[in-house]
Design a protein that fits this description.
about 270 residues; about 70% helix
């Protein structure tokens, strides 16, 4: 006898084990604890195998892992964007616990004492308030910033290495994999030290070390991904990464200056 799919109402025949329209199993019964436990362990084991395989690959051979993924081994590895989401969630959890960020900026009383003009004083107070809001936003929205970095670096690096037969989307995927892994690992290695010295002179050197280690790791992965063999290729990728990063930093700082000072930078700058 004919029946219908419980999911999409498509007509089914007795020989059908799966719906030809939506793919759901036709042998669907009532939910039981046995079914729930089986589904749970199937999901966990599948996720764990894919995530561990990807983590191990990014640890010992990031360039090879990214190459295999973009060239067709999609089911063998975890999805890059899911992996990025998990890494960001882990980093945010660590940062919530450790709080490795410096304190939000507050008005400097010495600067205020030097400013006699009430209008300039008000501009300075508003600029500090906006700077604090930007820092607080970046601390809480690392996931958004990380997602935006991938396409930016992917497109810029494609301009430098378009002859290496990788398109911008593939470079973006590779960069996201490397960045997610490096960010998660550095949250274990560097963030505890940044938290311990967050209000000291050691904080910014530690932050620079964090960025340096991530840059060197991403360079290692990308040099293999672009099929370079040797120090010259590594240095080419490192130079391109630094240049793209510096350009992005300058653009970002110009945008932040415009937002923070609203065209009144030079009125305040002489008092800083």
């Amino acid at each position: 006898m004919r029946s219908t799919c419980l999911n999409c109402s498509e007509t089914l025949y007795p020989r059908d084990k799966y719906c030809g329209h939506c793919g759901q199993n036709t042998a669907i019964g009532r939910i039981s604890f046995k079914e729930l436990s089986n589904e749970f362990f199937r999901t966990v084991l599948h996720v764990e195998r894919g995530a561990m395989r990807l983590f191990k690959g990014l640890l010992i051979g990031p360039g090879k892992t990214a190459t295999e993924y973009v060239e067709g081994k999609r089911r063998a590895y975890f999805n890059p964007f899911t992996f990025l989401t998990l890494c960001i969630a882990f980093v945010l959890l660590m940062n919530n616990w450790l709080k490795p960020y410096g304190d939000l900026p507050v008005p400097d009383q010495e600067v205020l004492n030097r400013i006699s003009d009430p209008h300039t004083r008000e501009i300075y107070l508003h600029s500090v308030e906006r700077t604090a809001s930007i820092q607080d936003f970046s601390n809480k929205n690392m996931n958004l910033l990380s997602v935006l970095l991938g396409p930016y670096f992917g497109c810029c690096l494609w301009i430098f290495f378009r002859k290496r037969k990788r398109n911008a989307a593939e470079i973006t995927v590779a960069f996201i994999l490397f960045m997610a892994f490096a960010t998660a690992v550095n949250s274990l290695l560097i963030s505890p030290w940044r938290a311990a010295y967050r209000n000291s002179n050691v904080y910014y050197p530690l932050l620079c070390l964090d960025i340096l280690l991530q840059t060197l790791y991403i360079t290692w992965g990308l040099s293999v991904f672009f099929n370079y063999r040797g120090i010259n290729g590594y240095l080419k990728v490192l130079g391109a990464l630094c240049l793209v990063g510096i350009i992005g930093f300058i653009i970002l700082m110009i945008g932040l200056m415009i937002y923070v000072y609203r065209g009144d930078l030079f009125e305040v700058l002489k008092y800083l």
